[in-house]
């Protein structure tokens, strides 16, 4: 069995197709160990087609100690799109998501102007999830432009996950069986310590054909 993975992230490729306001996000930043896998509460990477991923808003800003019930009741998902983990070649632990809705120019109703978050759970739906991670995109929802297009996007990587992780546990030197040791990862749970500075240890990249594409 070849210890080689060809991972082509489709992040952003569909953003220019069609009209409307789109929220796009991925945890595959570049073609190396700076990608940030998501693990369930046992430490296993969440399988493609499983788990819950959505971009949306909270009625009250979440913290690392927010109760699970409050996470469920205060979150409002944005737009239409698949909420199961998905990526180009079926690599566990990684998502590449797009959600869209109409927010015409001049609209001031929610979620316009509200902080955007990525909520990740271990169930097939928000209601079914028992363990969570919450990531801040660092941006707010806007509206479409005069041509009917609009976008909010965030790529999570080892470089920014430390400032983005609000809820969940930071883990390091993560091996998901893909032939590369990822510098940082996120394990679903009830909060944890901040992610430390990236390790200076050499990454094991021998024989790896790991390819990702930045959002254009």
Describe this structure in words.
The chain is mainly beta and 216 residues long. It has one domain (20-187). The chain contains 2 helices and 11 strands. The chain has helices at 68-74, 161-164; strands at 20-26, 38-39, 52-58, 75-77, 96-101, 115-121, 132-140, 149-155, 165-167, 169-175, 181-187. The chain is globular and about 45 Å long.
Topology (elements, then pairings):
Layout: E1 20-26, E2 38-39, E3 52-58, H1 68-74, E4 75-77, E5 96-101, E6 115-121, E7 132-140, E8 149-155, H2 161-164, E9 165-167, E10 169-175, E11 181-187
Parallel strand pairs: 1-8, 2-11
Antiparallel strand pairs: 1-5, 3-4, 3-6, 6-7, 7-9, 10-11
In spatial order, strands of the major sheet run 4-3-6-7-9
Structural class: mainly beta
Low-confidence stretches: 1-17, 191-216
Main β-sheet: number of strands, strand sense, barrel status?
5 strands, antiparallel
Q: Proportion of β residues?
A: 25-35%
Estimate nothing, just give the exact number of structural domains: 1
- Could you estimate the helical fraction of the residues in percent? under 10%
- Total strand count, please? 11
Q: What is the CA-based Rg, rounded?
A: 17 Å
């Amino acid at each position: 069995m070849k210890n080689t993975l060809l991972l082509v992230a489709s992040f952003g490729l569909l953003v220019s197709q069609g009209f409307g306001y789109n929220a796009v996000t991925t945890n595959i930043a570049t073609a190396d160990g700076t990608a940030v896998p998501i693990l369930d509460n046992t430490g296993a990477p969440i399988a493609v087609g499983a788990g819950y991923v959505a971009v949306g808003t909270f009625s009250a800003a979440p913290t690392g100690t927010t109760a699970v019930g409050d996470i469920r009741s205060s979150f409002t998902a944005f737009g239409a799109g698949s909420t199961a983990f998905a990526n180009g070649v079926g690599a566990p632990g990684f998502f590449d998501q797009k959600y869209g809705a109409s927010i015409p120019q001049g609209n001031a109703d929610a979620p316009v102007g509200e902080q955007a978050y990525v909520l990740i759970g271990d169930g097939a739906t928000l209601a079914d999830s028992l363990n969570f991670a919450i990531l801040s995109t660092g941006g707010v929802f806007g509206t479409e432009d005069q041509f009917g297009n609009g976008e909010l996007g965030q790529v999570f990587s080892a470089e920014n996950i430390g400032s983005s992780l609000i809820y969940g546990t930071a883990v390091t030197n993560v091996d998901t069986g893909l032939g590369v040791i990822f510098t940082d990862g996120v394990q679903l749970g009830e909060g944890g310590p901040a992610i430390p500075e990236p390790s200076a240890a050499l990454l094991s990249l021998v024989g790896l054909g790991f390819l990702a594409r930045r959002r254009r």
